[in-house]
Structure formats: structure tokens, C-alpha cells
Amino acid sequence: MDKIRVWGGVPLRGKVQVSGSKNAALPILISSLLSEDPCVFRRIPQLQDIRTVLKLLAHLGVEVQVDQGQVRLDSKHVHLFEAPYDLVRTMRASVVVLGPLLARFGKARVSLPGGCAIGARPIDFHLAGLERLGATLELENGYVTATAKKLRGNRIAFEFPSVGATENIMMAATLAEGETLMENCAKEPEIIDLAMALKAMGAQIEGEGTEIIRIQGCTRLKGCEYSVMGDRIEAGTFLAAGFATGGEVRVENIYPDSIEAVLVKFEEAGAKVIRGTDWVFMDGSSRPAATNITTLPFPGFPTDMQAQFMTLMTLGEGACAITETIFENRFMHVSELARLGADIVIRGNTALVKGQKSLRGAPLMATDLRASASLIIGGLCAQGETTIDRIYHLDRGYEKMEDKLMQLGAKIERFS
Ligand code: UD1
User: Fold this and answer.
1) 309 lines ligand 1 (CB under 6 A)
2) pLDDT digit string (tens) for 3-53?
3) Which CATH number fits the domain 22-227, given the four candidates 3.65.10.10, 3.40.50.720, 3.40.50.2300, 3.40.190.10?
4) CA of 168 relative to ligand 1 center, distance in Å
5) What spacing in Å lies between the alpha carbon of 50 and ligand 1's midpoint?
6) Is the CB of residue 384 less than 8 Å from the CB of residue 374?
7) Atom of ligand 1 nearest to the CA of 122
8) Residue 271: closest CA among 323, 319, 314, 312
9) 342 C-beta closer than 6 A to ligand 1
């Protein structure tokens, strides 16, 4: 099993090219199931989660061709309609195949994902939405089977703006009969990116990026070519690492608007931020001031940046409160950060962080994707050597992270 070793204390300086967004790429690759023509997607990051979704698509009968960051998918001969437990367990986003399979083939069987390290994460909103479109659902042996002769457009009000449920229903509705009106939708930039890919396939969608999405169903969608947006969480992670080490970092291939809530918090903490058309520069040479955050659905502060921001705050001047409202168990990095000497107390869904002048290196264990990034940032700041075990969590969502950090001057290596 791979580990990462970091020698801390070097301020990061330079620029980083951000990869294509993992969370946009996953549903976009899955959207190819909606068309019997080939689709070509570009700027697909080379990551474990992407390999898992391509494995799932190949399992269903999709012809998959990968050429570096370009993926060609041909769903003409799909002959299986089931996402098995082994694949859904390793990557929950697999449940998003339900909507497209059901819409195009009238049937889908998907393993229930169960909980994961950061929380229970049920899929009840996805299922309720599909039922509103006329699907019949059966739950048996840990699988949900959905059938429908033809999905019919309807009005769907989500209980909560779930990213996955918005994506699943948006895809299903593109091939439903008539109009679907989705209310209380997630507004994340990845939803807009998926809608743009679907529109390139001929789908009729309005309102993506707002609470209300209106879709006129079509009888068929055509193939398309589409390039995925830059990864806003990767960009935010490198900026947090730059600030935490007292450096200056420019991230490129990223729309600043997609991480505005994070940039505002960096500024509140004392960093100087310059927003370009598709880049952000940050001078983080001053010690960060303690800054409270509360995670919220977009455009609020993203839960996927909470752990990285917390590491930054462990070195802040003063004390702050970090409140997590999206997932119920997303503070597993806290006990690991404490091993570096961080002073953090958890009270319900709030972590109270008292900033220290410095951290000290230690052996650490990654527990989930974003937690691993926060521990690497911790190691980059800590005096001496830090090793991080179970780095496979990081490989699910960051493309060539050590290489990119090395380009910024970090002393970091991967070893087995
Ligand atoms: C997506 C992102 C993930 C991010 C999250 C929130 C992908 C692949 N993953 O996950 O990185 O952290 O958005 O921005 O894009 N919920 C229910 N019932 C449901 C669906 C969700 O109760 O049917 C709850 C979840 O347990 C969670 C909250 O709603 O507490 C938000 O989840 P959701 O927005 O659906 O997150 P994901 O799509 O799983």
C-alpha cells in the first residue's frame, strides 16, 4: 500500500494546472448511457474513481476507449442494466446510472450504496424523484430495481438540494415524455457542467445552476463532444496549501466564481487574492487570521473544502469555529491533525480550532478523500517529517498531487 512522506516548512510558490473536475466528469461519463451514438469527453482526470465508473460502464456493455484525458464511449450495445455492489460500494456516484438506464431502457437494478466513512448518505431523494417520473421501485437483497414502460415528466420538489439526486433526475427527465419541473435543485457548478454536456447531446434544459430546472423530454439524444470543467476543489486545495505554508500560488484552468465562497474566506483570513478569467492567484504570506466557516450547499462554503480549511486554521492567529452541516461524520481528520499538535475540540457538528504557531511532523492515517488532502497540507506545514498512510483515498480524487506539489517546491515523495 502506498504512503506519502512530506518534509514540512517550505512555502509553496508557483503555478498549478488544475485537472478536469472529478465530480463533473463522473455523471458526464454516465450521461453517455442516454444516447446510442458515441460520445467523446475531454479533460477527464486520470483517477481511481474515473477508472471505477469506466469499469461500471464497460460492465453494462458500453464500448470504452481511453486516450490520456480523452474518453470515447459508445453505448449502442448496452445489454446489462445492473450496477453491482462491488462497484457501488467503492464509488457511491455509481447510483447515478439509475436515471439514464431507466430512461433509455425502461429498467435498472442498482445496489444500495450503504453508509460511508463520512455519513449515512441514503439515496431516498433519488428514488422519490424517479417515482414521481412514473418508475416502479422494488427493494430486495440490498438492490433497488426500477422499471417504467415510459417515464413521464412531472413536478419534483427535492427535500434538500442534493447534488447526486439533481443529476440523476435531470438525466432521467431528458428522455421522459413531456415536461419535468425540478424544484429546490442543487446549484453546484458540476450540475451546470452536466447540463451543458446534456445540451450538447440535444437535451432541452433550462435553469441549471438555479433552484428550478425545467426539462422538455426528447425521444432520443445524439452523441456529443464535450470538455469537462476544471476541478474547483483541487484548485481550493492547492490555494489552501499555499496559504498554510506562507507561500504564493496561482491555480490555472479554473473559474474563480466556482470557488468564490472559499476565496472570500481566504481573504477574510488575510490572504491577497486576484481573480483572473480562468485563474486565481493568492499571496498567503501573512499568518492566517482565525476565520469561522459553515459548510452549505453551493454557493455556500463547500463541505469538500472543510478539512483543508481546518488545517489552515490550526496555524491561525486566534480561535475559530468550523461547522459541518452537509455530512454528519466529517471530522475524522481532527484526531489525525491532533497528532501534529493541532488544538481542536469537537462539539456536535462544530470543531473549535485554536491556532498554533507551528505543527510537528508525525505518522498519520488518511480516512477519506478530502481528509487525506488536509493531512498532506498539515505535513507541508509541520516541522520535520510526516508520513501519511492509506493514501489510496487521495488517489480517488487528486490527479498527480505529489508531482504538482513538487512543482511548487514541496519536499514530498510516495513510497510503498
Ligand atoms: C456530491 C459530491 C461530494 C460532495 C457532496 C456535497 C459527487 C460525486 N460527490 O455527493 O463530493 O461532498 O455532493 O456537495 O459529486 N442525502 C439524502 N438523501 C439522498 C441524497 C442525499 O439524505 O437521496 C443527503 C446526504 O446524506 C448528505 C446531503 O444530502 O447529507 C448532501 O448529499 P448530496 O448533495 O446528494 O451529495 P452527493 O451527491 O452524494
Assistant:
1) no
2) 999 999 999 999 999 999 999 999 999 999 999 999 999 999 999 999 999
3) 3.65.10.10
4) 12
5) 18
6) no
7) 18
8) 312
9) no
